[in-house]
Design goal:
41% of the residues lie in helices and 14% in strands. By secondary structure, the chain is an alpha/beta fold. The strands form three sheets. It has a seven-stranded mixed beta sheet with strand order 7-6-8-9-11-10-16, with helices on both faces. It has a six-stranded mixed beta sheet with strand order 12-13-15-14-17-18, with helices on both faces.
């Protein structure tokens, strides 16, 4: 039996010898490589925190001591040490989540996988412990150096250092990377700490001095190195950063040395006040294919060959991200005013090709979506057209800036939202299902949802041509489906994908839901029900021709992969009522709930977004109930004029 198999909880670590701990670390790495290569997941980050996570659980008593992971993508080792060793269905329905999850274990506290929030959590938890007389409980927050580029981290530090009586330990996992190499002044400073000759010389000189004293000297060195090097390195390397924060600093510590980490953590634990433990680690440590990967050191992988690290997923399909990556370069070559902005995700969002072609025109602002949006407003004021590429789930963090800095100032900024809609295995905090509901309340904003690659290229070109308002282009995770050609396009840009000879149902599809709408229409046609399928392309503001179509049909059904509450269906309903059109509207989308990890297909089926379910319900409504025939829209309204269609009695009211 391996040592790992004997670990059912953190306290099983207490009796292990130094040699056994080293063996355990090796077994954990082997386990992670073997298992994650089969399921996909965050491999590189977890390989980099094996020893440090073991040390944290040896020194602190989880769950009595609260352990918080920033983003949580480095929590696989934590899961293993807290008794969760079945990784066979990692990130699949019924299996372990890819991030901490309270329903899995009392050892998991923070489920959100949005970066830079851990120190705020730690601040609040430690304050609660202090205020409720639980002064013997510690809080440990592991935060990557990339998260230090986020503003929340520094807001939290400002408050943490305001009260030096709490038992709060901040472990900075400094590997020089977030998804990619960490950028900015903080990154340059930490890189100086890691590489400065004075620190390296100090380390070697002090070690040699104690070695001359023989075994007693080496023992004394091991007992003192955390504090000695913490004190000296703070003096030599970190005084400029931490002296004004009024917070104890220990480090840098070799994060792959369990002894060194334990010593530093025990010193921090005994200090009785907030402490920063600065550890140096290597992302993907112990796995050569990950270390050699210059792009992201296997931050997240699909199914791979564990021996070589090569992908074994066969797909000849182009991803949505790659379509954007190619098209933005073409647009930038024609338009020198285009600039790109990313929030620490240059390659994942597809801006890397833009950066390679025009390195001076792409800016990585770190994990700082709020700053990205407002900086973009400033770039627009200066005569440029910024394209801000981020994941849809992260636009939530920059809403105020989109509203007050971009839209209020009529700034021409394009937001490109990758991973919109249901993303699948990464779980609740990574689904991009809120953007349509949140952003459509921004005055004058224009939202586009392409159904295929051709429409994506069209709409991206249209978006960057708008210089007096924010524009948004959203697309899902995964491969681009085959193009769906329209039968015709209206004057205001709505694509008619299928037009029925008799007009019973109007299906208004948002983006990639067009294919679903066409399949529903086929099933309705088999039941003698005429269904027209349209793709607005630009879903906000609602094109006038959508109102024209709605007035000609008996019922309108909107289909979107965002939440129903406040979604595009709600907007269509409101615009119809404002125009005096009383056609019934059925809004189909996702529930206002946090959706667990599962495949996209499983989640859409749960929400009833399948051809069979939608068609069956519509057959019952159209044939089994009395859906009224809508009144035709007056010619002047069809031509885009506002018309009051209320009855005389309604007008008097």
């Amino acid at each position: 039996m391996s040592i790992l198999e004997t670990i059912s909880g953190p306290r099983d670590l207490d009796a292990l010898s130094k040699q056994q701990l080293v063996q355990l670390a090796a077994e954990i790495r082997e386990f992670l490589i073997s298992n994650v290569s089969k399921t996909g997941g965050h491999l590189g980050p977890n390989l980099g925190v094996v020893e440090s996570t073991i040390a944290i659980h040896r020194v602190f008593d989880s769950p009595r001591d609260a352990i918080v992971f920033d983003t949580g993508h480095q929590s696989y080792v934590h899961k293993l040490l807290t008794g969760r060793q079945d990784f066979s269905m990692l990130r699949q329905r019924g299996g372990l989540a890819g991030y901490p999850q309270r329903s899995e274990s009392v050892h998991d506290i923070v489920e959100s996988s949005h970066a830079s929030s851990s120190l705020s959590w730690a601040d609040g938890i430690s304050r609660a412990f202090s205020m409720t007389g639980q002064d013997d409980r510690h809080v440990v927050a592991m935060v990557g150096d990339g998260a230090l580029t986020g503003g929340m981290t520094w807001e939290a530090l400002n408050n943490i250092t305001d009260d030096n009586t709490r038992k709060l330990i901040i472990v900075v996992n400094d590997n020089g990377r977030s998804y990619a190499p960490t950028i900015g002044g903080m990154a340059r400073f930490l890189n100086t700490v890691r590489t400065r000759r004075s620190y390296r010389n100090l380390y070697l000189t002090s070690r040699k001095a104690f070695d001359r004293l023989g075994t007693p000297g080496r023992s004394l060195y091991r007992g003192m190195r955390g504090g000695l090097h913490g004190f000296l390195s703070r003096f030599w390397n970190n005084e400029a950063l931490y002296s004004n924060l009024d917070i104890k600093y220990i480090g840098p510590v070799q994060g792959h040395d369990i002894d060194a980490m334990e010593e530093a953590l025990r010193q921090a634990k005994n200090y009785g006040a907030p402490v920063i433990v600065h550890m140096i680690t290597q992302k993907g440590h112990g796995y050569k294919p990950a270390v050699r990967d210059a792009a992201d050191q296997f931050h997240a992988v699909g199914q791979i060959d564990p021996e070589t690290g090569e992908s074994i997923e066969s797909s000849n399909k182009q991803s949505w991200t790659s379509v954007f990556a190619d098209e933005i370069v073409k647009l930038a070559e024609r338009n020198p005013r285009l600039v790109g902005i990313t929030a620490a995700m240059l390659r994942p969002t597809g801006l890397h090709k833009f950066a390679e072609r025009f390195p001076d025109r792409v800016h990585d602002v770190g994990i700082a979506e709020q700053h990205a949006a407002t900086s973009a407003a400033g770039l627009a004021f200066g005569g440029l057209h910024p394209v801000v590429a981020i994941y849809a789930t992260f636009i939530n963090r920059a809403f105020d800036q989109v509203l007050m800095d971009v839209a209020l100032h009529k700034a021409g900024v394009t937001f490109v939202l990758d991973r919109a809609g249901v993303t699948g295995p990464d779980g609740p905090s990574h689904h991009g299902i809120w953007d349509l509901a949140i952003l459509q309340v921004v005055p004058n904003i224009r939202l586009a949802a392409p159904r295929d690659g051709t429409r994506f290229r069209e709409e991206l070109g249209e978006a960057v041509a708008v210089d007096d308002a924010p524009t948004v282009l959203r697309f899902p995770k995964g491969s681009v489906a085959p193009d769906i050609e329209a039968q015709r396009r209206t004057a205001d840009g709505v694509d008619v994908l299928r037009e029925a000879p008799h007009k019973d149902v109007l299906l208004v599809t948002v983006g990639p839901m067009a294919d679903l709408g066409l399949k529903v229409a086929e099933r309705l046609a088999a039941q003698g029900i005429g269904a027209t399928v349209v793709d607005p392309r630009w879903v906000v503001p609602v094109p006038r021709s959508i109102l024209t179509f709605a007035a000609e049909h008996r019922i309108v059904v909107t289909i979107e992969d965002g939440i129903r509450v406040g979604g595009i269906g709600t907007r269509v309903r409101q615009d119809l009522r404002e125009a005096g059109i009383d056609t019934a509207v059925d809004e189909l989308g996702l529930p206002d709930a946090f959706l667990d990890h599962a495949t996209r297909e499983q989640i859409l089926e749960d929400a009833g977004l399948t051809p069979q379910k939608i068609a069956r319900d519509l057959v019952a409504q159209v044939l089994g109930s009395k859906v009224p025939v809508a009144r035709p829209l007056p010619p002047e309204a069809a031509n885009g004029q506002d018309v009051d269609q209320r009855s005389a009695g309604e007008k008097r009211l």
